[in-house]
Amino acid sequence: MPHYEFRCRTCDDTFEVSRPMAESSAPADCPAGHADTVKLLSAVAVGGTSSAAAAPAPARAMGGGGGCCGGGGCG
Ligand SMILES: [Zn+2]
Fold first, then answer.
1. Cα–ligand 1 centroid distance for 16 (angstroms)
2. pTM of the prediction?
3. CA atoms in the 13 A half-sphere facing the CB of 70
């Protein structure tokens, strides 16, 4: 079961809650009983490392610069 990290804005404490993903966005009370909490987007420790390496798209010059029909001189 994944862990979700919350932060209490009342006592400025952070705590973890383990809950099913279906309830990941449900509000959680802090251990001190405060309801004013926000979910942090960090720790989800369910194994598996995802390397999000975006391959750079090759910049290709498209046409142009050629002789004919470039500046409307021919045709
Ligand atoms: Zn609290």
1. 12
2. 0.53
3. 7
What is the CA(36)–ligand 1 centre distance, in A?
A: 7
CA of 46 to the centre of ligand 1 (A): 26
For 58, how many CA atoms within 13 A lie in the half-sphere containing its CB? 3
Domain residue spans of the chain:
1-26
Helix, coil or strand: residue 8 = strand
Question: What does each of the 75 residues of the chain score in pLDDT, given as a tens digit?
Answer: 888 999 999 999 999 999 998 988 888 999 999 999 999 875 555 554 445 455 566 666 665 555 666 666 666
Say if CB 39 and CB 5 are below 8 A apart: yes
Centre of ligand 1 to C-alpha 70, Å, is: 68
